[in-house]
Each structure stands twice: as structure tokens, then as C-alpha cells.
Amino acid sequence: MTHYTDMQLDALRELANIGSGNAGTALSAMLGQPVDISVPAAKALPLANAVEAAGDPETLATGVVLPIFGDIDATVVLLFPPDDEAILCTLLGVEPGTEDGYGALGEIGNILGCSYVNSLAEMTGLAIEPRPPETVADMVGAILASVLAVRADSTNLALVMDSRLIVEGQECELTFLLLPSLQGIDELLGRLGLA
């Protein structure tokens, strides 16, 4: 269990939902097509539960990792399952599983992640920026283990959003995780008047 109240967790979930809406608008501009992003589930979970919520650890996925720095330190991780990766790559006219395919997913992840981070900054007044993304194809468990190895000492909570994108009538899913440092969560809540 975390030490956060239901009201604090609801506020963090609401930030996640608003960020996703802005990310959909930015992705639509990149693709030149309407994009609808819905977030059927947004959860604030302890790390161990967040890893389970991201999916079967032995499932293959492509991950896009964006470190965040500034007033808070955090890491954004987007996980694309293979079938959904293929849909997005096809929409962009690149072959999935190739260097161009990974580059395209990295750019989609960068746009989604940056839009989310910018929304978070606007809503809270935090000065935060993402670093360049890193794209990796591996099992879900391996991707998250490498990210958590770097953050484990400073993070105990993850915001997990199971997101559904609809582009040109084609539906694909991704998992979006925000892993803020402990001080980052407290700073976010403080800016929202919920510390």
C-alpha cells in the first residue's frame, strides 16, 4: 500500500487523463488524421503492482523510455505490444521490427510523452522537460526491470494508464507509465494543494 489518500490518488489519475487528451491532439497533428485516445484505466500503484498491471512480463513489446528532469525527476515508459506496434508502423508507412519502425515508434512515444509532460507542467506550474527518448524491443519484464533498476531507490509509486488509440478507425493499445521520484509525487501533490 501507498501512504496516499483516495483524494490524492484521484488527483493524480485526473492529471493522467488530461495529459492523455493533449497527447492525442499532438499525435493527430503528426499523423494528419484524427486520433482518439481513451484511458479506460488509470491507476496509481506501488511499483510491484505496476509491473504486473503493465502485462505479462514475458510478453514481447517495444518500449519507449523518456527520462524527465527539472523541478521533479521521473521516467515515462510507453509499452507497445507487437500487434499494436504493427498497426502504428503501417499507418506511418514503415516496416515494424526494423530500424525505421523503431524510430517511428520512438517518435510516437516522444510526442505522446512530451505532450503528457507539458500538460503536467502547465497544470502544476512545474518546470520539467523530457530528455531524448530511448526505444528498446524486449520482454515487458526486462524493459521495466532496466528502468526500475535506475529508479528503485527513489520511486515507490507508478501512474499506470492503459490507453486505447483509435486512428482512422483502427484501434491499438499501449500502456503508459509515469514513474516519479518520491519527492516528485509530493511536489505534484503540493502544487495541487493536496500535500
Which features does this protein show?
seven-stranded antiparallel β-sheet; 6 helices; 47% helix; 31% strand
Topology diagram in text:
Blueprint: H1 6-31, E1 35-46, H2 47-53, E2 60-70, E3 74-80, H3 82-91, H4 99-124, E4 128-130, E5 134-139, H5 140-151, E6 157-167, E7 170-180, H6 182-191
Antiparallel strand pairs: 1-6, 2-3, 2-4, 2-5, 3-7, 6-7
Helix pairs in contact: 1-4
Task: List unreliable stretches of 5+ residues.
Answer: none
- Per DSSP E runs of 2 or more residues, the count of β-strands stands at 7
How many domains comprise the coordinates? Answer: 1
Secondary structural class: alpha+beta
Largest sheet: 7 strands, antiparallel
- Give me the strand/helix succession: HEHEEHHEEHEEH
Tell me about this structure:
This protein is α+β, with helices and mostly antiparallel strands. The protein has a single domain, classed as 3-Layer(aba) Sandwich (Chemotaxis protein chec), CATH 3.40.1550. It has 6 helices and 7 strands; from the N terminus they run αβαββααββαββα. Strands 1, 2, 3, 4, 5, 6 and 7 form a 7-stranded antiparallel beta sheet that branches. The chain is globular. 39% of the residues are buried. The mean pLDDT is 83.
